[in-house]
Amino acid sequence: INQGFSLANVGYFNQFESTASSTYHSLQTSLQIRNWRGLTSRFNYTWSHAIDNASDGQDYVPQATQPDDSFHPERERANSNFDMRHRFQWYWTYDFPSTETARWLLSGWAIDGVVTLQSGQPYNMTYLFEDDFNGSGEFFGRPDLVGDPFAGTGGLKILNLSAFAAPCDFDNVAGTCAGGQHFANLGRNAFVGPPYRNFDFSLVKNTNLSERVKMQIRADFFNILNHPNFANPLWPNFGVTFLQNGGQFVDTGTPGDDIGQFRGTGFLQPTVTPDVGLGNPFLGGGGPRNIQLALRFTF
């Protein structure tokens, strides 16, 4: 024990607490067709709503576990990080009728398809470790919402970052907060990332070479329509900061006193596809169109 220990030498106490509350509501439906004239198909639809005040035990994503205000974790209650309001998936396999005419060429054909449609997932707007704007010492708080975050947005511009400001009175000369630090008015997971639309398709030809040997020739088209899918803006950097494009000073006080707001600038734009954002690109992961040709023998 250090006999010289004094609370006067302690800046912050860190308390790790694995408690949270959550609710989940869902409606799940499905329709299945089994081998009806060569068609096997299934429709799945889920409407759901996940709400919590912490979405993980420990994570790299700010405010998935760490609250903006540690003294009031109940204020973090919002849509979960993994909340996905709608998800629809339709997959099918259709075997074309066989024919005795040129059987080796015209028989054994089939098509497969998977259509996936799903809502985007929530994300936080923070200022990460840029500065201790709110005075809490936790360094990853949320900014104030001071304007229309959707002004001028469209296409890949999904948020106007000039609508967010540091939660304090900012001294433009000193480059720091000049007082008025507070926990921001912006709630947790206030925005939703891009939706996901994908159509995978396969063309297959099965040929029996003998009673025991079968040959399959197939062409698989991942994202055949080449629809652009972008990952949640959290990826790949595990966070979204309103200062990612730099900051700008806006004089909102007495003219000439150099006290005002420190706002973001430019627009927030997703930069990666879902597979790249997760750090492990794979076929069918939401990337651009990919075509795979395969020849397979089974025996």
- What's the gyration radius in Å? 27 Å
- State the helical fraction: under 10%
Kindly, what is the distance between the CA atoms of the first and last residues, rounded to a whole number of angstroms?
72 Å
Biggest sheet features: 8 strands, antiparallel
How much beta, percentage-wise? 35-45%
Would you mind describing this structure in some detail?
This protein has two helices and 18 strands. By secondary structure, it is mostly beta strands. Strands 1, 2, 3, 4, 5, 13, 14 and 18 form an eight-stranded antiparallel sheet that branches. Strands 11-10-16-15 form a four-stranded antiparallel sheet, with no helix packed on it. The longest helix has 4 residues. It starts with 21 loop residues before the first strand and ends with a strand.
